[in-house]
Amino acid sequence: MIIETKNLTKRYRKVKAAKLFHKKYSTFYALKNVSLEIHQGDHVGLVGLNGSGKSTLIKMILGILQPDGGSVKTFDRDPLNNRQKNAVKIGVVFGQRSQLRWDLPAMDTFKLNREIYQVPEDIFTKRVTKLARMLQATEFLTQPVRTLSLGQRMKAEFIAALIHDPELIILDEPTIGLDVLTKNSITEFLQQLTDKTIIFTSHDLDEVAEVCSRILILNNGQLVLDQSSQELAELNVPATVTFTSADKLSADLIKQWPNMMQLKNGSYQIAGIKQENLKEVLSTITARIPVANIEVKSNKLAYLLAHLKQQEVQQ
Ligand SMILES: Nc1ncnc2c1ncn2[C@@H]1O[C@H](COP(=O)(O)OP(=O)(O)OP(=O)(O)O)[C@@H](O)[C@H]1O
């Protein structure tokens, strides 16, 4: 087993009310009774809104935070007292934090990591060459990191995290701010790491589903869903279409979509469109209105959370 948590809980005291010399506190649960198992080779997506407890869970798996209740085991041992031993088997990429030295080429950080993890030189060279080829990163690894684009830097972060060939790869929102092409190339890269255990946190369910076969959803510190990506892909989530047109819409069109809203910026939005009706709605809009732009979105996470809440209320 790579990770096992049982009723894992993290509490904080939050100030409820404050007078000049007197504060009142309430207990706040960043994580509440989370039980899960992650096995060798699992690619697990950890998804949730801001503040749902994703980073707290990751920090406890890494042994950075102490639990207030329940237990966590990483590689069958207490991560808090085995941080060094476990670090050899774990690679971490944070989208919001860098492990690369800003003024030096990424290659220098790789060499430093080679020293820290005592990777033999020939293995190091082969590994970096292979990873750089997979990520199409070869040409910019000798350039100072400060001169790299965000996408190039993130690719270098991945290589730095994998220099010691870790068994477990933890990715904390590694694609934040990246364009579609860079995201795709990172997704393809991760899909090839089939012998590794991956935990991939994000707000974007569809993105993690491309890499992970299993999705865990955290909400308000609780594990509310543990399901295969395939089952989630089969969910029929209603879409929202937003479009902009300089022309006024005809009365019969307005009547056709009673739930259409006119937004502040002059664009229009139709929500709750079933997937089977989407094509028809789009062709009607584009055939009958001169649109400047049109966008289709379906927020699976929001839909799931709303659904789960409804189920909870009914029970
Ligand atoms: N040291 C702390 N003291 C008090 N509250 C904290 C502390 N660390 C985290 N929290 C709270 O715990 C909750 C969970 O935070 P966490 O960072 O785990 O969320 P997250 O899901 O990673 O969010 P995001 O997607 O925004 O990174 C948040 O409400 C946060 O304010």
Automatic annotation (TrEMBL):
Q: Which SUPFAM superfamilies match?
A: P-loop containing nucleoside triphosphate hydrolases (SSF52540)
Domain of life, source organism: Bacteria
Keywords from UniProt, A to Z, are:
ATP-binding, Nucleotide-binding, Transport
Q: Which residues form a coiled coil?
A: none
Which PROSITE patterns does the UniProt record give?
ABC_TRANSPORTER_1, ABC_TRANSPORTER_2
Task: List, alphabetically, the InterPro entries matched.
Answer: AAA+_ATPase, ABC_transporter-like_ATP-bd, ABC_transporter-like_CS, ABC_transporter_ATP-binding, P-loop_NTPase
**Tell me, what is one Gene Ontology molecular-function annotation carried by this entry?**
ATP binding
In this chain the ABC transporter domain maps to 3-245
What family is this protein classified in?
Belongs to the ABC transporter superfamily.
Per its UniProt record, what PANTHER family does this chain match?
A: ABC TRANSPORTER ATP-BINDING PROTEIN, ABC TRANSPORTER ATP-BINDING PROTEIN NATA
Q: What name does UniProt use for this protein?
A: Peptide ABC transporter ATP-binding protein
Q: Which organism is the protein's source?
A: Lactobacillus kullabergensis
